[in-house]
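User: Structure please.
Assistant: Input sequence and predicted structure:
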Amino acid sequence: MSDENGTPAGPAGPTPVPAPPTGPRPEPLRFFGTTWLHHDRGYTARRVAVSAGSLAAAAASCLVLRVAYDGLRIADVGSFVTLLMVVMFAVCGALAFRHTWDGFTRRPDPERQASLRGLLTIGFVGSLLAYFFRSLTEAPGEGLHREEYEAARARHEKRTTRRSGNPSKKRHRS
């Protein structure tokens, strides 16, 4: 049975709703939400799925690049253009891998991120591989988020423990 507000009624009346936790809240990660905090609610299964998904996406992307390479070969554009395309995808992939990997340990600069958007788009295979390798050990970005969350919790604890009691009831020294 429930009351008019939809609150389930227990044997002694309505069940009290717990108060929301005070202090900072963990920032959700893509595909993981906040399960990275306590490694609960299917965290391991999500990591396995993210690893498999990013590896499958990288493999499919390599097949797409192979089709593009075959198109260049069929078009007979010449060995210089073909070599230029292969080198471009390799360099952009390596740079995208490094940029994505660094993004898991520190916040990227928004201006630099915007200026590298084209390069990261071309090197998408590198980003997918970075995501795959990181998800083998933790949720991508978990270390950074955990560090920031623990620092925020420590600041919150320091602020709240400093202010204890009612200041108007303090005893004055005589």
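The helical segments are 35-38, 43-75, 79-103, 110-115, 117-122, 124-135, 142-162.
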